[in-house]
């Protein structure tokens, strides 16, 4: 008798657990998307800053060279 | 604080927040189960995003009072970071809505709709900024637009009190000490990271302006 009750309550418990929504995928996607967006934004900005700095240095060099060439 | 230290500290603090969510706060909430864990990335982004928009709006106002590169770059870079923050708020909010309410989006919910309008308004700001070529004209137009867009921020904040939403709660009940601590630690962590990104974006705008000026100087000099 106790064994039967335990078995039945176990089955009911398992059925209830199966009906309960699992939130793990939602949590995974929420944190994953946030991290991905933050990381991409950070990397994009760092790459852009470096690229612009290199171009600015290059132009600065060109400008100095052209001014030096113009001075008699 | 050097920018590299600032950005690293921001990332480390955000990682600590995620660790607190994983190991410190209770795994489930009594009412909405484990889905409440999304709150700890959704709320900080929302709060800091609105704060960033207000500060960027102040930059727009400052530009209109005294035009200059610094206030223009401050506002533009702030709005870029604010759009990132509100994108994260919308995406995580939508995922949480699906988990907790069973729907991705509720167009009758005033909080959701005001945030969506806010996002679209600032996205339009970025489009406007990208389409105008002449720097002084672009800065002036964008300052006016940015200042007008800031008017939507209090509407987002007070939408819950004004319109009685069906789904979005007026405030989250954080009864447990660990939840409260993680919530405000998260806000601090995201504030650090977003302000670091703000400084980085500011640098991008400054370098772009320098590049443009150098190009003009080279053309003038015939180099």
Can you describe this structure?
The complex is a heterodimer of chains A (72) and B (223). Chain A is mostly helical. Helices cover 90% and strands 0% of the residues of chain A. Residues 1-5 of chain A have low confidence and may be disordered. Chain B is mainly alpha-helical. Chain B has helices spanning 3-23, 39-65, 69-101, 110-131, 135-150, 152-163, 177-221. In chain B, helix 1 (3-23) runs antiparallel to helix 7, helix 2 (39-65) runs antiparallel to helix 3 and helix 3 runs antiparallel to helix 4. In chain B, 42% of the residues are buried.
What proportion of the residues of chain A form beta strands (DSSP E)? Answer: under 5%
Low-pLDDT stretches of chain B:
none
State the assembly state of the protein chains.
heterodimer
Q: Helix and strand string of chain B, N-terminal first? A: HHHHHHH
Task: Give the averaged pLDDT of chain A, no decimals.
Answer: 79
Look at the structure and give the mean pLDDT of chain B: 91
Protein topology:
The complex is a heterodimer of chains A (72) and B (223).
Chain A: H1 2-19, H2 24-70
Chain B: H1 3-23, H2 39-65, H3 69-101, H4 110-131, H5 135-150, H6 152-163, H7 177-221
Helix pairs in contact in B: 1-7, 2-3, 2-5, 2-7, 3-4, 3-5, 3-7, 4-5, 4-6
Short note summarizing the structure:
The complex is a heterodimer of chains A (72) and B (223). Chain A is mainly α and 72 residues long.
Key attributes of the depicted protein:
heterodimer, A: 72 residues, mainly alpha, 90% helix, rod-shaped, disordered N terminus, B: 223 residues, 79% helix, globular
């Amino acid at each position: 008798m106790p064994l039967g009750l335990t078995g039945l309550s176990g089955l009911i418990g398992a059925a209830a657990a199966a009906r309960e929504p699992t939130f793990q995928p939602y949590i995974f996607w929420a944190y994953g998307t946030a991290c991905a967006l933050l990381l991409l934004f950070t990397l994009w900005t760092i790459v852009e800053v470096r690229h612009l700095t290199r171009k600015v240095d290059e132009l600065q060099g060109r400008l100095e060279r052209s001014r030096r060439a113009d001075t008699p | 604080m050097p920018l590299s230290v600032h950005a690293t500290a921001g990332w480390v603090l955000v990682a600590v927040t995620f660790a607190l969510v994983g190991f410190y706060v209770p795994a489930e909430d009594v009412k909405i189960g484990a889905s409440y864990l999304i709150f700890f990335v959704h709320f900080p982004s929302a709060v800091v995003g609105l704060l960033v928009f207000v500060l960027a709006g102040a930059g727009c106002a400052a530009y209109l009072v005294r035009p200059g590169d610094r206030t223009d770059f401050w506002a533009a870079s702030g709005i870029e970071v604010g759009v990132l923050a509100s994108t994260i708020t919308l995406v995580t909010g939508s995922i949480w809505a699906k988990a907790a309410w069973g729907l991705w989006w509720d167009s009758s919910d005033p909080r959701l709709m005001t945030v969506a309008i806010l996002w679209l308004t600032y996205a339009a700001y970025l489009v406007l900024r990208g389409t105008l070529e002449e720097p002084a004209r672009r800065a002036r137009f964008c300052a006016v637009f940015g200042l007008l867009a800031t008017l939507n921020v209090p509407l987002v904040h007070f939408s819950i009190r004004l319109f009685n939403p069906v789904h979005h709660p007026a405030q989250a009940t954080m009864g447990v000490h660990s939840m409260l601590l993680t919530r405000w630690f998260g806000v601090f962590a995201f504030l650090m990271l977003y302000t670091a990104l703000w400084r980085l974006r500011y640098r991008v705008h400054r370098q772009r302006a320098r590049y443009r000026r150098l190009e003009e100087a080279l053309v003038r000099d015939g180099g």
